[in-house]
Amino acid sequence: MSQENKKPSSSKRPIRFNPFWLYAILLVFIFVPSLFGSFFSTPDISWLSFKTTMLDTHDVEKIVIINKETAEIYIKTDRLADSKYEQINKSKLRISSAPHYSLRIGSPESFEHKMELAQEHFKEDELVEVFYENRTSIVNLLSWVFPILLLLFFWMMLFKRTGKGGVGPGSILNFGKSTAKLASRDVKSKVTFKDVAGLEEAKIEIMEIVDFLKHPETYTKLGAKIPKGVMLVGPPGTGKTLLARAVAGEAQVPFFSLSGSEFVEMFVGVGASRVRDLFKQAKEKAPSIIFIDEIDAIGRARGKVNAVHSNDERENTLNQLLTELDGFGTNTGVIVLSATNRADILDKALLRPGRFDRHIYLELPTKQEREAIFKVHLKPVIKGNDVDVPLLASLTPGFSGADIANMCNEAALIAARKARKHVTQDNFMQARDRIVGGLERKGKLISPKEKKIVAYHEAGHAVVSWYLDNVESLVKVSIIPRGKSLGAAWYLPEEHQIITKPQFTDRICAALGGRAAEEVVFDEISSGALDDLEKVTKQAYSMVAYYGLDKEIGPLSFYDSTGENERLLGKPYSEYLGKRIDEEVIELITSEYERAKTLLGIYRSQLEELAQLLLKQEVADEKDLERILGKRPNNTVPV
Ligand code: ADP
């Protein structure tokens, strides 16, 4: 080995294989022979000139027929001096043993025949010898090797795409491998319980689980079994994922997180194999936590959907998950956390003791909790002095943690757009309206007639709901187009766990107030009540068929929490009962519509005044409403 090789200079970078080299080599292989081929190529001649200038003059030494296609003509050396071969003698690059001319022949038979005729009066020793040869030229070889290489190349590219370079979890060879992301103790999750506001009970429950993992002996000593699975259940945006991430931050044990849909691929058997792999990895790193988000993607009840929609692959995955949950003992030190907002559709087998036997329910935050969540999300926001956090919390009932986070961000964006120094209470209110009602579209063109209809429609909602006892308080009416709607009445939702029958009927009546106002005022109805009517119809059907609130139908419910009825094509009740349900719904809605019209008849002057105000200033707030409609009566329903 030379000295140089022993000591590679530091400036020299190691030569790494680059796939583009392959193409370069290929190109060289393809082009070089043809390049040189044309360089050394033998001149082509026609049969006629061959016969007259060479064959008839006895210049030809021999003929070699290549691949039954081309005749290579060799001229006798002593004849080359002739002036007609001047061209050949000039080409210095010629290889001495190479043929002098080439001639394309139709077929060897016809060529031989022609030769025979041409040499008819030749003497025996003057006849030209014809040889046959088969040759494989490099160009020919490449012409079939190249397509194969090209195919191989595309194949490689395809795998690269699916496999992120052929080594990632998505690669073809790793399809069955789990795609779980591991947040190990070295890579600490930045989220801790401090970032999760409210949810006190859930936090206590989940902290216990962290404790199981850290000190299992305390529990097992007394004969207790450590739970294997914990299911976080709650509406979207209530902080399930956040809580799980906080567990990762607090537990200081390896944390595998993935989403339920990641198990499902287009290939059969992949899901099950990923589950196996995930549990294997988790067991190797025990004590550890597995977090499966949106578990309903795989945990949906088996065999409960239409045969058309059935998904065997999902069922296999679920079966494997159940087996794995059964398979590891309580002392393995692996706890599976999962989250869903559709606990009702989950397979019962998944929820039975020994599997996901602990359920933590997260609900929409209460006022106090909302206040705490606001405080967490307001931390990075530069807020004005007028921002009243308790007021914000009380003005956002029904908001989830995610909505609150979004509102804080939206308010900051609004303030930034207006180039303010800080975010004011007003900005927060605008953000709330935007989240609830959609984007304001002041530029939307509405004809004066349409505007008038919208004003009376919204005023109708306002007047009817104002005088009904069981409707949430009205805070604002606006006829500024927002999102898809042309106007809106804003209520302050109260937090109810149950809704009484009078609340239902009053809400239906208030929702019909808009359409009723159109009829009362213009004696003409429009398509503008679509949203209201949709809501009302759904509510009326759920009152009658789900909540058993109808006198005639009685306390029957056709609600199906198990999802079993999804399989049935028909309705779970008889045709006769179906007809009666329809009749009752129609009766309920018509009577509420009449009630709304009666109310508007009584308060017609207030309706006019409010509509005119809306036409003038587009928005009427609580003060305007009180001025026009009087103080809201909260105990008597006049109709
Ligand atoms: P999901 O329940 O749908 O999994 P997430 O946990 O993803 O909801 O919550 C979405 C976002 O909402 C979080 O990233 C966080 O910003 C905010 N959030 C939800 N709940 C809370 C909470 N209790 N405290 C603070 N932020 C919350």
Outline the secondary-structure elements:
Layout (H helix, E strand, L loop, with lengths): L2 H4 L12 H22 L6 H9 L4 E7 L3 E6 L10 H5 L10 E4 L3 H11 L10 E5 L4 H26 L17 E3 L16 H15 L1 H5 L8 E5 L6 H12 L3 E5 L10 H15 L3 E6 L2 H4 L12 H16 L6 E7 L7 H4 L6 E4 L5 H12 L10 H6 L6 H17 L7 H13 L10 H19 L6 E6 L9 E5 L8 H22 L7 H17 L28 H28 L1 H14 L1 E3 H8 L10
Helix pairs in contact: 2-6, 7-9, 10-12, 14-16, 16-17, 18-19, 18-22, 19-20, 19-21, 20-21
The chain binds adenosine-5'-diphosphate.
Adenosine-5'-diphosphate (ADP) binds next to α9, α14 and α16.
Please state roughly what percent of the residues sit in beta strands, choosing from under 5%, 5-15%, 15-25%, 25-35%, 35-45% or over 45%.
5-15%
Strand order of the largest sheet: 5-7-8-9-6-10
Shape: elongated
How large, in whole angstroms, is the Cα Rg?
42 Å
> Using DSSP, what is the number of strands?
13
Low-confidence stretches: 1-12, 163-171, 635-639
**Percent range for helical residues?**
40-55%
Tally of helical segments:
23
What structural class do you assign from the helix and strand content? alpha/beta
Largest pleated sheet: 6 strands, mixed
Distance between the termini: 107 Å
Q: If you average the pLDDT, what whole number results? A: 80
Associated small molecules = adenosine-5'-diphosphate
Structure description:
There is one protein chain. The protein is an alpha/beta fold and 639 residues long. Helices cover 48% and strands 10% of the residues. It has helices at residues 3-6, 19-40, 47-55, 86-90, 108-118, 138-163, 200-214, 216-220, 240-251, 270-284, 296-299, 312-327, 348-351, 367-378, 389-394, 401-417, 425-437, 448-466, 501-522, 530-546, 575-602, 604-617, 622-629; strands spanning 60-66, 70-75, 101-104, 129-133, 181-183, 229-233, 255-259, 288-293, 334-340, 358-361, 473-478, 488-492, 619-621. The radius of gyration is 42 Å and the shape is elongated. Residues 196-199, 234, 236-242, 339, 373, 376, 401-402, 405 line the site of adenosine-5'-diphosphate.
